[in-house]
Amino acid sequence: MDVTTYKKNTGYSNAKDQVRSLMTSDLCLHLLVFIMVFSFFCFLQFSTNKIADRDGYFHIKFSQLMREHGIIYKLPWMQFAIFKDYFRDHHFLQHILYMPFTFGNLIFWGKCAAFIFAALAGLSFYIILRLCRIKYSFFWVVAFLSSSHAFLYRISMLRVQGISLALMLLCVYFIIKKRYKNLAALAFSFVWLYDGFPLLIAITLIFFLCELFIEKKADFKLLIYLFSGMLAGIIINPFFPSNIESYFFNFGRISSSDTSIQVGNEWYPYNTFFLLKDSAFVFILFFGTIGLVLGSLNKKNYILTSTFFVSLLFMVLLFKSRRFIEYWPPFALLFCAFGVNDLFYNNKENRFVKRGISYCVLSIVVLITGYFTITNFVAARKELEGEPSKDYYKGAALWLKEHTKPGTIVFNTDWDDFPQLFFYNTDNYYIVGLDPNYMYRHNKSLYRTWQDITKGKIENPHKIIVEKFNSFCVLTDNEHKGFIKNANKDPNMRIVYKDKYCSVYSIIL
Fold first, then answer.
1. Which residues, listed in sequence order, are joined to residue 476 by a DSSP beta bridge?
2. Rounded to 5 degrees, what are φ and ψ at 492?
3. Rounded to whole angstroms, how far apart are CA atoms 66 and 434?
4. Could you read off the pLDDT of 359-390 as tens digits, one per residue?
């Protein structure tokens, strides 16, 4: 074919121009996705001036202290918890990654960190699809942003979710492409990031077993490199060997069936109707893909089968605990992307491959996706706006900082008061924070006593507060009606600070 004919048929003067045009087109698409994902999470995050979830206040403040003082091995700020004298930071890498965001206003830069890591998770999802040659990757990214308002809310928290999701998605890519050394390095990093690293074991085992039964190949190198990376992460660790004890403690805490300790809502399952409604878009795509795949594919695909079982694993975990909402939608959509790709593009004999039908179906799906994108964004923004004010404990914490000596123990009446108190005032110490299990495992009897006092079951509580908790200051939010009633009747307790959110009592003997 001469140049004139080639140009007439293709619109390009030569093959190099065609390649250059494709590269430019891809670059524009990548840039569009980058801008879209970052803008989406930025607008969502800054739709309110609050930090999503109270624990975020602890993590950004703790990262600042790490930057200023180095690795922290004790948490004296929780005087009656297991971490008082020796702390094993199971989010060590997370706190390192937050350090660059601790040089200015912690709330503003903390929110920047939250949306950046959420966006990186979305970009990881997109990059994996592109590298695996999945068609319509742009649509699947939009589906990622449309999946569930609960997912959008939780991944926007200043916590480990966004980073861990990005690493788990990369884990799948390294497994598929047999990047053994990369997988080992990722496993090492994940151990430092989050004590949920057994999730990587589950993902890798699923791919290993599916390849074994479908392809009749036993890729033991996957397991060897994965476990080598994890073992190195456990041993080459600033908290070794005590970190091993911490892992077992946290695994036991997660799997415990003890309902006598009221922990955070994230540990409890969603109402079934709420979950089906909130994640309706993902459920439709997920079960729709299953129906099409089961009735259409002629050859079993171990990668598709593996992504199905991984998404099924996270669905089961989600029915047990709502905290897995940050993982199930992305992995369910990953399965859908691989399934639809095989269905329409790799299975030429399939009746659904007809171009007219595929474009018709795609148009309907795009309209549905647009609807869920808007509704879930609005719902996620509403939930973010429903978080407690960033000033909820600010006034009381700063008053205590100014009017008490450093190291004074403040009797806080709820464990989830701690993150904001710690954020505004690290001069004082508190009773417990982050998780009531930390106090329960430290001293069960003392925990029950603290619980009885805070629930208003003990009259004239000042004596026990002083004798058992060595505290002469009490901070309570104004919702603890039973405790406040008893404290107001106690002749040895008087209010020294009060605002619309909380009160501070001083004990006078």
1. 503
2. -95, 10
3. 18
4. 566 666 677 778 888 888 999 999 888 888 88
Rounded to whole angstroms, how far apart are CA atoms 468 and 80? 10
How buried is residue 70: exposed, middle or buried, by Cβ count under 10 Å (0-12/13-18/19+)?
Answer: exposed
Rounded to whole angstroms, the Cα distance separating 326 from 294 reads 27
Q: What percent of the chain has pLDDT over 70?
A: 87
More confident residue, 366 or 178: 178
Q: How many domains does the chain have?
A: 2
Judgement on whether residues 340 and 481 belong to the same structural domain of the protein: no
Q: Is residue 264 part of a domain?
A: yes
Q: What is the pLDDT of residue 8?
A: 44
320 — pLDDT class (breaks 50, 70, 90): confident
Tell me how far apart the terminal alpha carbons of the chain are, to the nearest angstrom.
Answer: 101
**Within-domain flag for 2:** no
**Is 50 part of any domain?**
no
Q: What mean pLDDT comes out for the span 392-412?
A: 94
Shared domain for 211 and 245, answered yes or no, is yes
Distance CA 486, CA 453 (A): 9
Q: State the pTM of this model.
A: 0.87
pLDDT tier, 133 (very low <50, low <70, confident <90, very high otherwise): confident
Do both 307 and 434 map to the same domain?
no
263, 436 in Cβ contact below 8 A?
A: yes
> Angle CA(96)–CA(100)–CA(104) in degrees, nearest 5?
130
Which of 350, 385, 420 is the last residue before a domain boundary? 385
Q: Among 336, 357, 385, which residue terminates a domain?
A: 385
Domain that holds residue 406: 57-87+388-509
For residue 185, is pLDDT > 60?
yes
275 in a domain, yes or no? Answer: yes
What are the φ and ψ backbone dihedral angles of 477, each rounded to 5 degrees?
-75, 165
